[in-house]
């Protein structure tokens, strides 16, 4: 599995051999316009505009003997309409992600397996805590020519400035909880710090309270390094770091101290790293088109020590109680009876404004 196409404000990329592979590697999809991609995933990450009338976010159309139409529209009230018309096949889905709560950024993933006559449509919030999943039966394969045209500027293509990126994979992409630490991130263990890439199921790690807990699972996934997956650079010695590290924007840090207790009335709080960006402590990271993340699943979502800072381990909530969501996730191949039930987060999660105020006070 690999990513083969990416389009955002910084550029447009179509690489049949894979975005993260050498240009001379063998292509993973056909090179002719009428070759078919029978299995894959289209991901669109976008801001959801406030609108009083339907507004097009993505639109692509081609006529001919086998016409193709793809459009994503925002409609009043916070809804979305996805239309995929191809030959005699029509997919028309009206989504109301506003039922998931207030949304700033959402990610839509359309996956298809034409030989299996199976498809799935998923919508996620940017913090990945809320997920909407719907079936998309009997999908058609996509023509390579249409894929290329969708990811390259042209007269048949429109992409709204609200769209952060579009990406295409040649496999079924998982949705739901995602890893958020780079493989070289040092994690505290009873024998000292070890890169998370060297840890495996059955190993033990030290929590922030210096307790020893087992690693139930380690998950790994490669994502396009854009939008809510574009890594951020955390600088030492801020947040107790002993060295600089890079994380996904949604990685949560656990912050404690007298200021936290005074400002928020709790001994410790959690905040996504993205809320801390913009100052001297968290900067944009240099990266390629894709990035590999890893994370540890622990029994009670215990916070771990990552290069000295307190970081939350993988939080899966009550995923084991939601069969459809579990099947769509990176943990879908595991026995749900062996997965923990994390319930609610142990730490209050700060809003962006509160997190920035706290970060500014600490830097000052």
TrEMBL record:
Domain Hedgehog/Intein (Hint): 180-317
Protein name, UniProt field: Hedgehog/Intein (Hint) domain-containing protein
